[in-house]
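Input record (Table S2, row 320):
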Amino acid sequence: PGPVDPAGAAALLRQARDVLVVGHVRPDADAAGSAIALATALRRAGTEAIVAFGGPDPVPGTVGVLDRDGIVVPTAEAPAAPDLLVCCDISAAPRLGDLAGRLDRAGASLAIDHHASFTGFATHHLVDPGAPATVLLVRGVLDELGARLDPVLARLLFAGLYTDTGGFRWGGADALRLGAELVDAGAEPRTLLRELSGTRPFAWLAAQADVLAGARSEPAAAGGAGLVWAAVDAATTARFRDETVTLVGQLLATAGDGVAALLTETDPGAWSVSLRGTGTPDLSRVATTLGGGGHPAAAGFERPGTRDEILAALRAALSP
Ligand code: 5GP
Ligand code: MN
Ligand code: MN
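Output record (manganese (II) ion complex):
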């Protein structure tokens, strides 16, 4: 038990008879791309591998776009006690959602992750907080497994790499080099990105305008960071859950050196908060204080309460 390198992770995967691969709840393209790519490669090598994502929230459209071969099963059909449970892009056990119980029932567990806030919840860890995306770590494991990058795997890895690096804004030369390799291997950014984020309902234009019109900018308290925030209420969330993810980037563009927060009411009285900033203050730490986690410049947390209670907790966590 403990840390493993990519070769150690590949050895664990080769020994397992059946593998359940999971990503975090409400998977983004890094979680879903990592999990589906890994399971695809395992199946090609003759290992029984299944992908599932924990509820109770429904899986986003991203999963349907990425799961062309249909290897994702509904949460209820995830094997109860797999030989090996692989957790992709998951920083802490609660991020498995209602699949968290599988951690105790699986023969062993392997976390593949890149969060600064990683908690060491699995029996084996392949974790690098310096990696810009989990797909980069998965790629290392695929190499060790002898999997050849073909258009299917390349597309899955590219989706996670592009999304988690903010479209190659960060991640540096390593991310760009892997991106080039994936395009050489058959990933098609133009069609993929259209499928992932280029098709939205027309009604989203007006709904988005309403959300952004309600945004507020709060000046920095002494020694603290300024805050630009907006809230999406439960009714709007129910209609447009897949569309709201890009809003926090729009808030950040107006936040200067400060922090952007998008408060999404996932159910009445339950909030999911996305934080974005420059890295100072360290939002991974801010979010961890509030029960979540993430990276220095991108983090999140979930919390019950009223909108104003969430904001009060956030302001307190941001004040020095
Ligand atoms: P996003 O705002 O895109 O949902 O998440 C940004 C980053 O924060 C991602 O790396 C994500 O894994 C992390 N994050 C978001 N929400 C939570 C949460 O509730 N708990 C934890 N531990 N991390 C979160
Ligand atoms: Mn993620
Ligand atoms: Mn990630």
